[in-house]
Amino acid sequence: MNYRSGLPLSMRPRVDGPPPFTTLVELTWHEKRIESWIRFGRQTYEQVLDRHRRVVGFAPNNVFAFVRWAANDYGTVLSRIDILSAIDRGEPFQTLPFVRPGGDILLKVESWPKVARVLEHIDAIEAHGIDPCDVVEDHWRHVHRRIAAGIEPHPYSADRHAAWVKRRSAEP
């Protein structure tokens, strides 16, 4: 224990490490084998581990989309998109592979046809000039439930977004 700082060395943040309470996501990219990437999100930290792996971080309450795809010699074995909200100290969270410590999972979709529908939905939101990070979290939960039920999710309109922004600014 380093008595000058009051914390054991293993608990002290590294000088070049992420800020405290950062949600970390490990990304791997081996072309046409394992591909994971962030579809949207405001990164506050990045560390390149090697030419195939890096770690990115998100501050508490930031929403981001994490896409994972993997294949073997016979075809696709994994297609998944998760939209999460990064957690703050003491908040409950769900665990997810490659996400430390975890996050508030707003949407979880598996299989390429469903993942493609979510990606198209994100594209439609961006076509309105809206950053998907700023979309009301309940909308991502709605998209999750509708796709799980095999129903088309309601579009996210510029009017709905403007109402959300106005409501958020009026809250204390």
Keywords:
single chain; 172 residues; alpha+beta; 5-stranded antiparallel beta barrel; 24% helix
Give me a quick take on this structure.
This protein has helices at 112-127, 137-148, 158-170, and strands at 23-30, 34-40, 45-48, 53-58, 63-72, 75-86, 94-96, 99-110. With 172 residues, it is α+β, with helices and mostly antiparallel strands.
How are the elements arranged and paired?
Elements: E1 23-30, E2 34-40, E3 45-48, E4 53-58, E5 63-72, E6 75-86, E7 94-96, E8 99-110, H1 112-127, H2 137-148, H3 158-170
Antiparallel strand pairs: 1-2, 1-4, 1-8, 2-5, 3-4, 5-6, 6-8, 7-8
Walkthrough of the structure:
With 172 residues, this protein is of the alpha+beta class. It is 24% helix and 36% strand. It has 3 helices and 8 strands, in the order E-E-E-E-E-E-E-E-H-H-H. The protein has helices at residues 112-127, 137-148, 158-170; strands at residues 23-30, 34-40, 45-48, 53-58, 63-72, 75-86, 94-96, 99-110. A 5-stranded antiparallel barrel has the order 1-2-5-6-8. The longest helix is centred in the C-terminal third of the chain and has 16 residues, at 112-127. The chain is globular and about 50 Å long. Mean pLDDT is 90; it is low at 1-5 and 7-14.
Low-confidence stretches: 1-5, 7-14
- What is the first-to-last residue Cα distance? 41 Å
Shape label: globular
Strands in their spatial order, largest beta sheet: 1-2-5-6-8
What is the residue-mean pLDDT, rounded to a whole number? 90
Helix content: 10-25%
Biggest sheet, in brief? 5 strands, antiparallel, barrel
Structural class, from helix and strand content? alpha+beta
User: Using DSSP, what is the number of strands?
Assistant: 8
Separate helix tally: 3
Radius of gyration: 18 Å
Order of secondary-structure elements: EEEEEEEEHHH
Strand percentage, roughly?
Answer: 35-45%
